Structures are given as C-alpha cells and as structure tokens.
Amino acid sequence: MKVLAFDIFGTTVDWRTGVAEQVADIAVRHGVELDAGRFTDEWRDRYLPSMGRVNRGERDWAYLDTLHRETLDELLVARNLDGLFDEETRWELVRTWHRLPAWPDAVEGLTRIRARYPVAALSNGGFALMTGLIKAAGLPFDCILSAELAKAYKPDPRPYRTTAALLDVPPEEVLMVACHNWDLDGAQAAGLRTAFVERPREKGPHRTADRSTPGRDHSVASFTDLATILDC
Amino acid sequence: MKVLAFDIFGTTVDWRTGVAEQVADIAVRHGVELDAGRFTDEWRDRYLPSMGRVNRGERDWAYLDTLHRETLDELLVARNLDGLFDEETRWELVRTWHRLPAWPDAVEGLTRIRARYPVAALSNGGFALMTGLIKAAGLPFDCILSAELAKAYKPDPRPYRTTAALLDVPPEEVLMVACHNWDLDGAQAAGLRTAFVERPREKGPHRTADRSTPGRDHSVASFTDLATILDC
Fold first, then answer.
1. Which of A96, A104, A140, B23 is the most exposed place for a label (fewest CB within 10 A)?
2. Quick check: ipTM above 0.90?
C-alpha cells in the first residue's frame, strides 16, 4: 500500500449535523416550519439515485451542486414546500454541503497518517466544493481528487481508477477509506484495497449507519485507530 | 480575484540547483565526469520544445516523466554520453525533478496568502509528481492542479481554462503567479490575471532569468512581497 484515499461526506466530515443545522437556520430565517434533520435525511436519500443516472449514461455529466439542486427541487415538491423558497435561497441550501464539520478524530488521524503516506481526498463532491470544504475544515490532505476528474461518480470504477492513474500507482497500492459499504464495494471492484471506518452517527438519530462487512483489509473505529494500525 | 494559481518549477522551487546537485551525485557514483549545471541547463532547454509537440497534436498526450526521459536520451547522445548510464540510472535522473528545494520565501508567502485566498499549484509536472514534490518541500497549497488534467501543457490555453473550471470561477478571477513570461502570456491569452515574480537565479549562473514585461497585473520580487501587495 502506497497511498490512502479518503471518502469525505460521512467518513471525514459530519454532513448530517452540518447540513441539518444550516437548513434549520435558513428555514427559521424564512419563517418555514421544518424538521431540518428529517429534511436532510430525505435529501440525502436522493443522492445515490441522482448519481446513478449519470453513471448509467442516462444523462450527461452533471456537477454535484446541480444534482443537489435538482433533488432539492424534487423534495420541496414532494413535501409541499415548493412555494416557500426562492431561487437564491435554494442555492443557499445547496451550498450547505460546502461547509461541514470534521469528525473529532479526523485532523489528528490524517496528520499522523500523512507523516508516513500521501493522503488524498476522493469524493463525489466537485473539485471546487472539496477544495473549499477541506480548507474550511482544516483537513491536512496532500491532494484533492474528485469524481469530477473522471466524469463519473463512485461507486462506478472510473473515479477509483482515475485516482490510481493520477497518483501513478497500480490500483492495489491505493487504500480506500470510507464508512459506506457501497463505496468500498466499488473500490474493491476497481482493484483497490479497503478500510472500513465506523461512523455510527453518520446518518443521524433516525437511521442506522453501515456496519463493516467481511473482506475488508482493515476495519477501524476512527482515523486515529487507522493511524495506529498502519504504524503511523 | 478569487483564487491564485502558482507555477512550480522555477517560480516556487529552485529546479536548477536541485536537479544539478542530484545529477552531480549520480554522475560521481557512476564515475562519469560531467558539468552537472550545464547538463541541467541543456536538459531544460529541451523542455518547452518537447511539450510543444504535444500541444500541436504532433503526438498523443505524454506524461512529463516520459518527456524528460526522451529529452535525456537525446541529450546523452548529443553529448557522447550515451553508453554511460543504464536504464535504471536514466529513470533515477528523471526522478531528480521530483524532489526540489523551495525558494526561501515560498512557504512564508504561501502561508500568508493562503490565510486569505485559496492557493493552487498549476504545473506542467504530472499530478503524482507534483503531489510528491509539494509534500516533500512542505509547501502549503490548498489543492494541486496539473497540465495532466487538461492533457495539454502550458502555455496552451487548456490547462489555464481547466484550472478556472475546476475551481468553479471565471478565468478573470484567477491570478496566475509565475517567473516566466511564456507562462504568463499563456495565462493572459486564456483570460487569467497575472503576477510576475522575479527569480533572478532561476536559470543558474550562465543564463539570464526573465524580467517582468509591461501589462502584468502585479510584478513582485518574492511570494512575501506578493502577500504584502495583496494585504495578506
């Protein structure tokens, strides 16, 4: 193993808390009554299906912000909230995904691992979105990679293979770190090694987070545990 | 201006000193008499022409390491040194471009600028090469971009436009920082803003470095001067 690639939403940052808090603020400001946590859950439910349409070629490449905007519009109709948020506010809601808090162990774990290995971010978030999010959260990555560079979304094999190609190593020398089995299954299918990291609160209080499944190279409770296992 | 993109070879790191010192070491180890400085100058002379052939479509995209290997082989023939370095040593020579010292003002200047703006590396060096070089030199960039992502080399407009597109800003909101007029001319032609930074020792003792030409948005003596001009 020569380099590590880290998933971001859920694995490195707490999207559910970060988005729900910002959605709640925006709703209050517009006098809209909303269970921001449930709203965020339902928005996220539309995440994988929207990317699947791109991966299957049913539509051209679209930036994550575009997909978030489309799924937001659908959700507002489905919840009878369609008249309540104007154009500007809808984009403000989309941008809640641009500023999210890191999990408490993320900076320390990454710092220790980075002292020994190159560490890359590999997200379905766009390149600009990731650059801003990682800077704001103070996450010490060596480089940022994005599904945007492959014009295909994880778990399609293309972003994983593009990662290995850009880092100039064979796929089996990349360790993909994520808290989602769909992501690690995709990485494994593309020939990468995998580390499952438990994020029990990733989906908030109403949903059950993924548990590790057999066949992963590593299974850990935090980035600092991963650092220890890797002798970092 | 929203983001800054920094050239690397010559602008941020001292390629001439770094490559010449490593070439001298390798030559001594192989018992080859060589003026490593002149050898490095002549190798670098073949840099822009080799990339021009890619940009004009006379050959398919080739990674910078591949171009460096080809120009090395040509240079060894031209200097009657062809029999003296084996395959492994030639790749070792190519990799001298992967580990280069930062100019003394680079880390401090970047750190100050980064506190206010996103800072990107934009090099003709490959993505993996840049990731390793920037990590080894301890340069605090927010993200790494490479001509490799556009499959065209600067000064072709494509890498500059790809930079703006990936950072999700119009070209005129990117400030390109470089010590080469050919790079800044390319950036300007692609619609970017430009900052010339003087690097008088960039080409070593036998060559004259570029001087600033009229029409640049900024012209500075160091990255720390640039930080000051930008109120960072």
1. A104
2. yes
Chain B neighbors of A128, CB-CB under 8 A: 166-169
Distances (CA, A) of A194 to A50, A144, A231: 25, 19, 17
What is the distance between the alpha carbons of residues A145 and B143, in angstroms, rounded to a whole number?
9
Query: pTM above the 0.90 mark?
Result: yes
pLDDT in tens, B120-176: 999 999 999 999 999 999 999 999 999 999 999 999 999 999 999 999 999 999 999
Domain residue limits, chain B: 3-14+100-229, 15-98
Q: Residue A66's pLDDT band (boundaries 50, 70, 90)? A: very high
Within 10 angstroms of residue A164's Cβ, the number of other Cβ atoms is: 21
Looking at residue A171, the DSSP 8-state letter turns out to be G
Specify the CATH number for B3-14+100-229; select among 3.40.50.1000, 3.40.50.11540, 3.40.50.720, 3.40.50.300.
3.40.50.1000
Range name among A80-89, B102-111, B160-169, B180-189 with the lowest pLDDT average: A80-89
CA dihedral B169, A76, A43, A96 (to 10 degrees): 40
Q: Best interface-test mutation with B: which of A119, A122, A166 has the largest number of B CBs within 10 A?
A: A166
Question: Across the interface, which of B130, B142, B149 has its CB nearest the CB of A131?
Answer: B142
CATH architecture assigned to B15-98: Orthogonal Bundle (1.10)
B159 in reach of chain A (CB within 8 A): no
A178 close to A197: Cβ distance less than 8 angstroms: yes
